[in-house]
């Protein structure tokens, strides 16, 4: 405490000397103007700016001090100080030195000798602590003061190096830097599901007054609540990530790091940060005060913080955070497979869950058939609890298995990609009546570059020893659509999903000699310099089609 007073008095004593020297050079200068000018000259780096948010960096166990003097004019002036810790708890206090105006005036004119100045200083000066706080919450002090008072703010961190923000203002008429919170700043949980939580909160008065400049942003994490937006920023940075200073609230896409994913939909910005303690999500939803958080994990506790943000200044205020635990995941349903029946399964790539199918054998020999429609799928088959097959499938895949009557087979399917996948599944004891057609060695379509013209292309594909029907379809596409078309193609869909104008022809062919089971087709009437997507569909005895791999060919621009 003695050291604190020493550091407080030292600038005051130097300031008095400065005031006396200044008065000799310019005896007409007022004492108050001299006080302010010399304070600026001596302690410019330590003066706290009025009306501006200041970032203060603190070293462990080393106090940091800032001074301010209020503007002249009124005898009493209101002021507020808001301190926002951005990490660990800190200690901070406000000290005030009040000196009489008459003493300052006499000192400036040089009316007293040194002994008289010393006595007057002791009699006319008073130092007191008017506020102190310890913690990591955002704290605001509101006070009234005379222009002849000098204030000192002292900050101390005893845990580790950290930083804080400090905001001083004496203008109480032109609005607030920080958005206002409602009388009840709590967040209410109004709905909990297996993968969702629905939240609501009362509107900020700032939203009702300045809707175009204010928005709500929600922070979701699995660790704990945060009392300020800068505390959340610091926590994410300390986990090894680099973040922009406003935590992406400016909606600028330049800020993303490799560990971040940004999703913009329905005027909502979501940023997912992958950190060691799980995902931290930031969702900015405009001025809506009810929101359902999607894509959460079942049986997991999440912490939710809502910040109301001033888009013009990036200043924010925090609602009182809450938490909720999602419901436990229900036991996976098992679908019964029946002989000869084909079912199509859609697999959620984000959840990476197994879809289970069960079959009780009525024959000793059975055959599972899988036709991959979209994406990539992992198949795992067990018989009476023991694994008999496990692999990633592509195209059409058969598994022929032997066992006993009433053996129980469990088929588990999972998407190996983050996007959704789909697959058709059939089990049957009838080997001699396959549901799907006999397939060639390859389902690729080949094009001949030398045979391309401005209005035609020639393609070829392999056939089988079984007479089958083949239908060719074409579609114009743009260059930037190629990847999307090839990626999103449903290989299980038949020609019924295509427009009639896309049909080119249908033909039958086969060859007993597989070396000669190949056919070619020249498609004419095309536009020059244009990309086309070609598809070939193979139909077997049952009428179920198998789609060859799509082929993209561009006609020549000049001939």
UniProtKB/TrEMBL annotation:
Domain of life: Eukaryota
A Gene Ontology molecular function term of the record: heparin binding
Pfam families noted in UniProt: NDNF, NDNF_C, NDNF_N
Annotated localization: Secreted
Gene3D superfamilies, per database record: Immunoglobulins
Annotated keywords: Glycoprotein, Neurogenesis, Repeat, Secreted, Signal
Signal peptide: 1-23
Record GO biological process: nervous system development
A cellular-component GO term for this protein: extracellular region
Domain Fibronectin type-III: 179-316, 437-545
InterPro entries linked: FN3_dom (IPR003961), FN3_sf (IPR036116), Ig-like_fold (IPR013783), NDNF (IPR019326), NDNF_C (IPR045805), NDNF_Fn(III)_1 (IPR055271), NDNF_N (IPR056225)
PANTHER family reported in the protein's UniProt record: NEURON-DERIVED NEUROTROPHIC FACTOR, PROTEIN NDNF
Role according to the record: Secretory protein that plays a role in various cellular processes. Acts as a chemorepellent acting on gonadotropin-releasing hormone (GnRH) expressing neurons regulating their migration to the hypothalamus. Also promotes neuron migration, growth and survival as well as neurite outgrowth and is involved in the development of the olfactory system. May also act through the regulation of growth factors activity and downstream signaling. Also regulates extracellular matrix assembly and cell adhesiveness.
Protein's name in the database: Protein NDNF
Organism in which the protein naturally occurs: Phaetusa simplex (large-billed tern)
């Amino acid at each position: 405490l003695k050291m604190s007073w020493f550091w407080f008095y030292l600038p005051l004593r130097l300031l008095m000397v400065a005031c006396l020297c200044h008065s000799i050079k310019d005896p007409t200068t007022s004492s108050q103007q001299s006080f302010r000018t010399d304070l600026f000259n001596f302690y410019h780096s330590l003066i706290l700016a009025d009306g501006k948010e200041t970032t203060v960096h603190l070293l462990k166990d080393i106090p940091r001090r800032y001074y301010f003097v209020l503007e002249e004019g009124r005898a009493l002036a209101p002021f507020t100080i808001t301190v926002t810790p951005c990490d660990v708890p800190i200690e901070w206090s406000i000290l005030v030195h009040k000196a009489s105006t008459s003493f300052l005036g006499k000192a400036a004119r040089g009316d007293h000798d040194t002994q008289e100045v010393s006595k007057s200083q002791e009699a006319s000066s008073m130092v007191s602590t008017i506020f102190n706080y310890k913690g990591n919450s955002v704290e605001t002090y509101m006070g009234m003061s005379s222009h002849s008072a000098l204030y000192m703010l002292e900050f101390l961190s005893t845990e580790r190096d950290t930083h804080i923000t400090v905001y001083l203002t004496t203008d109480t008429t032109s609005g607030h830097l920080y958005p206002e919170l409602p009388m009840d700043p709590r967040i209410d949980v109004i709905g909990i599901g297996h993968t969702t939580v629905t939240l609501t909160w009362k509107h900020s008065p700032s939203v009702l007054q300045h809707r175009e400049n204010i928005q709500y942003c929600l922070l979701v994490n699995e660790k704990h609540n945060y009392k300020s937006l800068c505390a959340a920023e610091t926590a994410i940075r300390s986990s090894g990530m680099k973040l922009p200073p406003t935590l992406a609230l400016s909606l600028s896409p330049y800020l993303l790091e490799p560990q971040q994913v940004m999703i913009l939909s329905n005027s909502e910005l979501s940023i997912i940060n992958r950190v060691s303690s799980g995902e931290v999500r930031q969702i900015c939803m405009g001025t809506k005060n009810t929101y359902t958080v999607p894509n959460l994990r079942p049986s997991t506790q999440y912490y939710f913080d809502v910040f109301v943000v001033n888009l013009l200044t990036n200043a924010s205020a925090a609602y009182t955070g809450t938490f909720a635990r999602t419901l436990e995941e229900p036991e996976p349903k098992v679908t019964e497979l029946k002989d000869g029946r084909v079912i199509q399964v859609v697999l959620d790539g984000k959840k990476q869950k197994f879809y289970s199918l069960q079959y009780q054998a009525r024959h000793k020999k059975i055959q599972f058939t899988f036709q991959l429609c979209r994406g990539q799928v992992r198949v795992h088959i067990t018989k009476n609890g023991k694994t008999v097959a496990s692999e990633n499938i592509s195209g059409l895949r058969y598994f022929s298995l032997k066992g006993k009557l009433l053996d129980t087979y469990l088929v588990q399917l999972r998407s190996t990609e983050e996007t959704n996948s789909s697959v058709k599944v059939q089990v049957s004891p009838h080997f001699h009546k396959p549901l799907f057609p006999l397939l060639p060695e390859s389902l690729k379509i080949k094009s001949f570059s030398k045979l391309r013209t401005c209005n035609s292309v020639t393609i070829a594909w392999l056939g089988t020893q079984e007479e089958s029907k083949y239908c060719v379809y074409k579609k114009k596409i743009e260059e930037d659509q190629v990847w999307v078309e090839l990626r999103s193609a449903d290989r299980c869909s038949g020609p019924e999903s295509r427009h009639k104008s896309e049909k080119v022809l249908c033909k039958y062919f086969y060859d007993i000699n597989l070396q000669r089971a190949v056919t070619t087709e020249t498609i004419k009437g095309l536009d020059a310099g244009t990309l086309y997507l070609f598809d070939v569909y193979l139909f077997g005895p049952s009428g179920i089609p198998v789609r060859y791999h799509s082929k993209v060919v561009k006609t020549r621009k000049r001939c």
